[in-house]
Known about the structure:
about 55% helix; binds NADP nicotinamide-adenine-dinucleotide phosphate
Amino acid sequence: MYEPRATSHAGVVVNELMSFQLIATSPILDWFVMIVHQDFDWWLSAASRAFLPKPLSFFSSRLLPVTTTSVAAYLSWVIFQAILYHFVPGRLHQAPRMPGGRRLIYKLNGLNAWLLTVILGAWVSYAGLARVAPDDKGHFWYDLFNDGELHPRTGQLFDWKHFNASRTGGIIAWTLIDLSFAALQHQQFGSVTNSVVLAVGFRAVIVAEYFLYEDLYVGACVVTIQHFSRNPCHYSKGLPIRFFETLDGAHERFSFYSIFGFAVMMPHLWTLQTQYLATHPVEVSPVAVALLVAGFASGWTLNHIANNQKNMSRRSGGKFRIAGREAETIEAKYRTADGKVHRTVLLCSGLWGIVRHPNYVGSITHTWASCLTCGGGHLLPYAKAILVTVMCVHRCFRDEARCKIKYADAWDDYCRRVRWRLLPGVF
Length: 427
Ligand SMILES: NC(=O)c1ccc[n+]([C@@H]2O[C@H](COP(=O)([O-])OP(=O)(O)OC[C@H]3O[C@@H](n4cnc5c(N)ncnc54)[C@H](OP(=O)(O)O)[C@@H]3O)[C@@H](O)[C@H]2O)c1
């Protein structure tokens, strides 16, 4: 989790306590959620009543057996994804400048790997090989939770953080998980409801968009890198749009926060909607379908346009038009660890002139639309919407603290020009 590192004694102690608490409780919280939907039919209140008098036996009586099959299945999944990550062809892409001044190269083969994963998963299921079944000093804890390598690599292109974020649990696995639970609903009730179709479809749009725009280089030229001449591939010269310039890609370190978040929380908590709908089918009215699609589409479009405007500003150095008018930008400078000073721009017109994080507003909107497919029966399927809302609000502060350090006065100028973070007049 990127944030400026505490230096005062009190700050270090608070960070240590918070980090220890998060490392110790996150796996238990995730396990608790699994018990709520598996053993208490999604009732948080019933699970809490059973948990409070006997917290230890609540968990110890439900210890999951670690079988050879379960370990082999998970290892096979990770190894299979590692093989795809390493061997499937893809274009090369240069990521943004790191604090040290260098720019790393990534191989972008996510879209091919996603399609191969889903096709192979469908074949394995069709062939009957798998059945759908609910099945530093003083900074020890803080460093375990938050620190670690920024871009750990094996060889030239196997990047562990990128691999974990997109291939082990979250993102590439989402479609398989969603389709499995849609199949489970069909197995149990003989048909699939329109809400599960919407939930699966909404997330497939997010996954396809992620891999399609993992970088984006509209109009930029494609060049061959000489040192890859034995196996020539291409990389885009345009500026990146997705993972590589997000907080997760550019600034989070490969630590508990990033590893556990992507490998455990993302596949489990982010897909609670289809897990819930598999056993609690919800059929929504045509009007509700139209409203859900409109809500999702407007959130997704807002997020997409906001990200594009920001990336256009970076790619063109601020020389581009938004809705027919010249974009307005603030010139900003920053220094990397190699001592070099770099120039960039902060966009302050278009959506970025209304609020400082318009892409978060889009993310929050489309996430709520996808959770609303679950109707009003239970709170737990809304975990993703609640977490994304809290995370985006928290990210506003984390990201702004980083930008303030990086851009100093230019960032203050931007905040004076664009007063609101998420909602004009409110926040
Ligand atoms: N569904 C979810 O689980 C979830 C949760 C959170 C976020 N998201 C989404 O994930 C994506 C990435 O989010 P993120 O947290 O990494 O934030 P982001 O908004 O994509 O990136 C923030 C960075 O953009 C640059 N920037 C900030 N203001 C700018 C401006 N006015 N002009 C130009 N550049 C500016 C700064 O980086 P520089 O150092 O380059 O200047 C800043 O650190 C977003 O689309 C977000 O909505 C999804």
